[in-house]
Amino acid sequence: MSNVTYSTSIEEIDKRRQHETLPDKNTEKEQSIVIIKHLDRLNTQLLKEYSEGIFFINCEGDIMFSNEAAFKLTGNEHKQKSQQLTALIHKSKQQQAQELFQRALKGGKVHFSTTINHKTKKELHLYITLIPIIVNEQVAGVYDICRDDSKEQERSNHISQLETHLKMEQKLANVGSWYYDVTEDKSYWSPQLHNIYGLNPNRLFTPSFKEVLQFINGCDQKRLEKAVAEALSTGESYKIEYALMRPNGEERTVFEQADALVDEQGNVIQLIGVVHDITESKVITNELKQKEQQFQTIYNNLDAGICSVDVQRNKVIVCSSGVSNIYGEDAIKFLEDRDLWESFIHPDDKPAVEKAQHQLQKGKTIRQQYRIYTKTGEMKWVKDRCIPTLDENGKLVRIDGIIEDITAEKKYMDQVEYLATHDHVTNLPNRRKFEKELKNFIRQMKKEKNSLAVFYLGLNRFKHINDTLGYDIGDRLLQHIANRLKKFVTPDVMLARAGEGELAICFLSLAHISKCQKLAAALFQEIEKEITIDDFSLYVTASIGISIYPHDGEDVKTLLTNANLAMRRAKEIGRSDWQLYSPLMDSETYKSYHLEKGLRNALLQNEFFIEYQPKVHTNSREIDSIEALIRWNHPEWGRVSPENFIPLAEETHLIIELGDWVIDHVCKQLQQWKNKGLQTVPVSINVSSKHLLKRGFVEHVQQTLAHYNIDPSFIEFEVTESSIIQYEEHVKKVMDELKKIGVTFALDDFGTGFSSLSHLKDFEFNTLKIDKTFIQHATDKGKQQAITKSILYLAHALNMKVIAEGVETKEQLAFLQKHECSFIQGYIVSQPAAPQKIAEYLKERFL
């Protein structure tokens, strides 16, 4: 009590109390006595420790009482009864303060900002609230509540971060400050902030934002994350109150305020904030609300509802207007009937609420969330915090409660939960939600001793659609398919999006293969219907893998893994097919996994080699050129087909290293043949789009050719239409640069991709290669033969060199000779051979 000053001592108050009563009319002296008696009824210990400055002023403007916070704010301890608050205010603000004081004496509540002369001779900005004291329907004086307003002034003057931090440290009681540099990604905490969080400031440890969230009450974490994210993205300041839990288990309530500093471009570069521990002030405020009715004007402005119950009298003694706003019922009704609030509780939530009430008898604070129906029938979510007070015998005597309407927060949390568990494109449950529900279904089937089936559905060539037509078309396609398949959804069927082009379906009480087959057929029928998007008519096929509980797995992970394996097996066998899981599929997965793993070491272990296949003149059989074909001799599985390891290399981006290796070895082989005196011919090398997109590809080719002294005209790169379709501009630029030095280009597998005539015109390929799928059916009188003839005619018209791939029979050769296909490649001439065999061919020149 040493820092709380009274103009009249407690002893004098007691003496006057024995001889004086409150007169009908208030004089200055009588008003002072009224105020003193009024003060005596207040809990002065609470006022002493209240964080904001409080003055009690009589009608003449004399200070009758000030608490410790007021002394700290003003820096002036009044010694005489006649000292007035206006005397502390800066001369330029005294007239304004006097006018506002007179307005409060007329019964009005007044807010204003002003400047006072601090004892350190520095100006201090205060935010002051004047509340009239009403006694016997007359104004007996004024409450003066002061709050330090310096920080707002400092922000308007753009004071630097360091100055702001120092002033916060010096002037604010129990306030910690922090600073975050967005550019440097560095944070600083003041020692007081460590204390507020219950951490040791001497450890020189600044927690990250993620670590800070671990201290914060779960309901408040999302609010704080959202506030910080908005400040970083918009540059706006924020204010937020939340609960935190110290490492020792102590809960603290804090108020955090932060400002964002932006650069000239409007980018947020700094966040500066303060954290005020308001735990004690909260408790003090609640106690004042319970004991002093006149303070209802303050807490009635809060959104939360506040109430206090005298348990011994079974009577509500305090009920703020916030309760009325939440429940839609007059506060007086709650004051008249303590049990009224129970009638608003949602019937399903009543048992849990009633159970929690028993904890109050033990002196334990309860925090609970439940639903209510307001007087108008509107359902709301409320957060209720009940604080018990026990007497010295441990008997419950009072319950103080805070009730908040968290309906909006609940809706937001439900929205966040929905977004976290559903796919934003199809609005189907996502994989996370599917796994959670599948776990519950397994538990149900186990209890009922029943089965369920997991269908894993993969759309064929979905990635190709995204890459060629764009992700917007791909998303809309997926939406169409999802909407079609929703017709299968029932309480016993769950449909979800499990991946980019993958869906998962769970069917309860399903085990028979015949039923699985019917369902798969029905799914195929829906998926394979024509889908029109903008100007595109799309036809999609799918592959389905099925696993059955408990035969193919007894947990979520195993069932999904096995269904996925079966789906991939269905794709391998033939698209638009379904497969039931078999343990044999695991061996294929094992091999695929080890191939991918071994692929990374194959270059280092010298496991790759190159074979060459000649391309000859159709009639003379003279060798025109040869194609380099990479091969892999696996130490465990022997020769691995390129169809198996090239896609793996594409997925793992090792295709670039492989491409560089092939170019280097081909140039080296050409040099060796040349050094042996052989008459060499051009060598074609297959190159992927990823390799062409590699930065410095042209320079690498030039350097390799120069290193082995190879004429660029002896190198031809074969590319496919599918490899250039997405990067046409860049690929054309690379081709043009290499053509300038003499490198030629061939369009490989023509007829199997998009077969766009514009590609032949724009890219100006030197050679056109007809895919073997057309050559195999060239002798059949049908569409394939007609297409082959058209390709040959087109190549001749464009004056392009044309090569037929995969020629194996005399009939195919005769057809190509008849239609003037100048060059052929295939087993009818030679299989891919080792360099030594090719050297023999080069000596002979004819095959």
Q: Nutshell version of this structure?
A:
With 847 residues, this protein is α+β, with helices and mostly antiparallel strands. It contains 33 helices and 32 strands.
Task: Describe the secondary structure blueprint for this structure.
Elements: E1 5-6, H1 10-19, H2 28-41, H3 44-49, E2 53-57, E3 63-66, H4 68-74, H5 91-105, E4 110-117, E5 123-135, E6 138-148, H6 150-156, H7 161-171, E7 175-181, E8 186-189, H8 191-196, H9 209-213, H10 218-234, E9 238-245, E10 251-262, E11 268-277, H11 279-291, H12 296-299, E12 305-310, E13 315-319, H13 321-327, H14 331-336, H15 350-361, E14 366-373, E15 379-390, E16 396-405, H16 407-421, H17 431-448, E17 452-459, H18 462-469, H19 471-485, E18 493-499, E19 502-508, H20 513-527, E20 531-533, E21 536-538, E22 542-549, H21 556-573, E23 578-580, H22 585-602, E24 608-617, E25 623-634, E26 638-640, H23 642-651, H24 655-675, E27 683-686, H25 689-692, H26 697-708, E28 715-720, H27 721-724, H28 728-740, E29 744-750, H29 757-763, E30 767-770, H30 772-775, H31 783-797, E31 801-804, H32 810-818, E32 823-824, H33 835-844
Parallel strand pairs: 22-23, 25-27, 27-28, 28-29, 29-30, 30-31, 31-32
Antiparallel strand pairs: 1-3, 2-3, 2-6, 4-5, 5-6, 7-8, 7-11, 9-10, 10-11, 12-13, 12-16, 14-15, 15-16, 17-19, 17-22, 18-19, 20-21, 24-25, 24-32, 25-26
Helix pairs in contact: 18-19, 22-23, 24-26
